[in-house]
Amino acid sequence: MKFEQVIQKNVNAITWTSAALIVVGFLGEAVGSQMLYTVAFVLASIIAATPIIIRAVEALKVRVIGIELLVSIAVVGAFVIQEFNESAIVTFLFLFGSFLEAKTLAKTRESIKTLTEMAPTTAEVVQDDGTIVETDVDDVDEGDIVLVKTGGQVPIDGDVVEGSGYLNEASVTGESKLVTKQGGDGVFSGTILDNGTLKVKATKVGDDTTFAKIVELVEDAQDTKSHAEKFIDQFAKYYTPAVLILAILVGFISRDFRLAITVLVLGCPGALVIGAPVSNVAGIGNGAKNGVLIKGGEVVDTFAKIDTLVFDKTGTLTKGNTEVSDVKNYAADQNQVLALAAKLESQSDHPLGKAITTYATNQQVAFQDLQVTANNTIKGQGIEAQIDQHEVLVGNQKLMTANQIQLTAVEEADLKELQGTGSSTVIVAVDHKIQQIVGVSDVIRDNVKENLAALKQLGIKKLVMLTGDNEITANHVANELGIDEVHANLLPENKVTFVKQLKDDGHKVAFVGDGINDSPSIATADIGIAMGGGTDVAIETSDIVLMQSSFQELVHAYGLAKKTVANTRQNIIIAIGTVVFLLIGLIFGYIYMASGMFVHEASILVVIFNAMRLIRYQAVTEDKSKKFAKLDGDQV
Question: Beta-carbon neighbour count of residue 113 at 10 Å?
Fold first, then answer.
């Protein structure tokens, strides 16, 4: 047993050692050294055949006849007829094919560990006498009052009983906007307090919290994922016994042992063994070169069958950061008004204010040197101040009304237009006159609409958006992008339910997301796709990662998957067709060992060169030319 373990542990080293010996053998033949030629190929055969024979024996113990048994018998037969070079090449190709397959199918997923490490471990519990005691999160009881400070993580689900602040709920809802929390508002475990101080009464603790349920959903979804049996394994159940029986019949009828062994050697499907892995390697390598990380050949096969794409909104369809999306200007000097607004908002830590100051900076508007006096923040309305002898108001419509400033019909229409897109609005008044209305929202990623259209051209039948955001914003984004179906105000478990329902309805589903909250859905879908700029958990849980978070990469990945699967099928047909041709020619006396091995090796080169075509694959999405996913001039 120890010997078998050592061999299997070092199978990669064995593969490369046999390859080196084969090279030495051919060099020996080139320099005319028959001894070097023979010894090198004999050693290569023995070394490479050892792990294959071990696998064949182990399979026979559980009554499984696989290609390993066929290769093993072919090697023994090749030794009997002293065709050492054939046995060495056959065994190396088999091991090299297994090596490629193992590489492409290797998945390193540590999402559960990562999620667990991100979960809060302690809580600051307020005692009856007002003191604060740091407590293990598992020891917090429902009804306890927990203190959460700026930068701290909420350790439980609960309701705010005292204080206020801005909470980052991206880990649960996926939404990038900071949410204002005050007395009576609910909060989730795992969310982070960006600014302020809160006292929270625990309503759910431990495994009952929303964050803990996310972890559980990922575990359950990954447990239910299964890998389809490889075509080659299924094929081997019938092919191996058939070739063995054929060789026995040929030997019995012809009384020609060498011919029977030749049937075994030529019947060993070298091109079949290497055909599928080399296509996957070429396809996966092309993806990596173009910013698409595909985690294995099985992922390629499954992704090619996807007909429904489900998207998270924030950070996926949109950039995930609140930005100024539109400015309605009524002033003669737009930059002067923007400078006043930015200077005033720079005095605030409100998320909308930060968006405006960032926008002004990007527009190269100078506002830092402006002088602010009589600054006054009005809760729930905005800010008023004196800036360079101007009275400036920045806030909502309530602030304008409180200062007897009325919107004109045009301004009222502009305000409703911005709000209709789901944008938050900021009104800027200077010297009692409205000068600008600024829309702040999470803007849609560049070229998403064109790329979604390209995906439909490639075969996607349904586009679905699932988001924790409100219906107005969700519907606006969906209408803008041509999304077929949209569901809003969802928590992670709701998204998982929708994904499961789509699968139950017979759809092949891929989920595209970026946050921790998306990881359960990513794991539940047939294919999980993560944006490269997203969280580590989403990336590790996923099957495909778009490294630059670009929808062009998604189009490339889908077209590449379809092309790779088609290429693999071509290689399988070439391999099986070659074997059938060789066996028929051998039986009828048209093919001999030398010519047969030439065709055999040529078929291996053909499938490799065919697979290499995938390296040149490029998906092109140009709105004007309407070119979609082309390879060598052929439409996918």
Answer: 11
